[in-house]
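Moderator note: this is an archived Q&A kept for reference. The question asked for a predicted structure of one protein chain; the sequence and the answer are reproduced below.
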Amino acid sequence: MKYEINSDGSNAVCVLSGELTFNDHDLFRRMLDEALVGGTKQVTLDLGKLDFIDSAGMGMLLVGQDKSGSEGWSFDLQKPQGQVKKMLELAKLSQVINIHS
């Protein structure tokens, strides 16, 4: 997984690319910590450039959702495509995480 964070202070958009798999667990947590520096209240993961996600990657999305709920910030996903979109739909993640097309 590769990522880029675009932040305006209160909102952070993390643009993910490549693959989100088990091997990215530490990097994913580090990305969230970076996105939350400076009092960010909203973190959005832009999945438009993410090519692949496995079950561990989907678990990381749930970790983000859980962390946001316990720490008082908002978390959502946007632009899932291809295999990533299919996996999110099959897992019915939209019932737990806000997903925008």
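Archived answer notes: Residues 55-71 form the longest helix (17 residues).
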